[in-house]
Amino acid sequence: MGFRQGAILASCSFFLGVLFICYFVDHRILHQELTDQTIEDGFQFYATFFNAPPAIKALLHGFMGFGILGLVAKLQVWDESAIFFDGSSLAAYVFAISVYLAVTVPNLRTVVTPADVDTRVDRIEALRILSAGNTIIMVILGAILVLQGGQEYARRAEMRELARIEEEERNAKGKATAGKDKKE
Predict the structure, then answer these.
(1) Number of DSSP helices (H) and strands (E) in the chain, helices first
(2) Res 74: pLDDT
(3) What residues contact 90, with CB distance under 8 A and at least 6 apart?
(4) Which tens digit of pLDDT belongs to each residue from 52-91?
(5) Does the pLDDT of residue 183 top 70, yes or no?
(6) What pLDDT was estimated at residue 173?
(7) pTM of the entire structure?
(8) Does residue 184 register a pLDDT over 90?
(9) Which of 27-31, 171-175, 176-180 has the lowest mean pLDDT?
(10) Contact indicator for 41, 153 with CB cutoff of 8 Å
(11) Are 16 and 93 in contact (CB under 8 A)?
(12) Can you point out the beta strands (E) in the chain?
């Protein structure tokens, strides 16, 4: 594994870790009965998340760029593996960032700093959409990790097969050379 693949794995794993922390709140919001306590826990959790210091937000966004940089760098080797695995991973990663920008950020703002026209019902609905968006991003990042693992598995299987073919060719040459020596 090189730097480029490490950048992808580190970025995806980091965000999966952050989203798994969010999932403790998201699970209760999405899959259990909504109580006032669950809603208040969600509001409190995401308010803490939203009001994090700028350095934390810069770290999150930096890791996003780090993942894209790794995927684009891996695409420089333009072979079938890069087209299928890395191209699919890049498309999925861009989709995850799109979900983050189009769903997570606006709904997080609605939950934490609602506009004057936003009611409590709007904030609860934004909280549910935010939780669903986080779950979608988790699935996408998991798929990227599976694609990267599949690429490594395919590369290793190809190397084993090439080594086996080379060994067979060497054995065939050795037998042909030994047969000539016996005739002379």
Answers:
(1) 7, 0
(2) 87
(3) 68, 71, 72, 75
(4) 999 999 999 999 999 999 999 888 878 888 888 989 999 9
(5) no
(6) 83
(7) 0.86
(8) no
(9) 176-180
(10) no
(11) no
(12) none
Structure tokens at 152: 């490594």
Q: What is the CA radius of gyration of the chain?
A: 25
Q: What is the mean pLDDT of the chain?
A: 90
Which DSSP helix (H) or strand (E) runs through 103? none
pLDDT digits (tens, 9 = 90+) for 81-101: 888 898 999 999 999 999 999
Determine contact, residues 124/34, Cβ cutoff 8 Å.
Answer: yes
Amino acid at 77: V
Cα dihedral 155, 157, 159, 160 in deg (nearest 10):
170
Give dist(CA 161, CA 147) in Å, integer.
Answer: 21
CA 69 vs. chain centroid, Å, equals: 13
Distances (CA, A) of 130 to 106, 127, 135: 9, 5, 9
Q: Within its chain, how far is the Cα of 167 from the centroid? A: 38
| Number of neighbouring beta carbons within 10 Å of residue 113 | 11
Could you count the other beta carbons within 10 Å of the beta carbon of residue 98? Answer: 12
Residues 7 and 66 sit within 8 Å (Cβ to Cβ): yes
Residue 78 one-letter amino acid: W
Instruction: Give CA–CA dist 63/22, Å, rounded.
Output: 17
Q: Please, which residues have CB within 8 angstroms of residue 82's CB and are 6 or more apart in sequence? A: 74, 75, 76
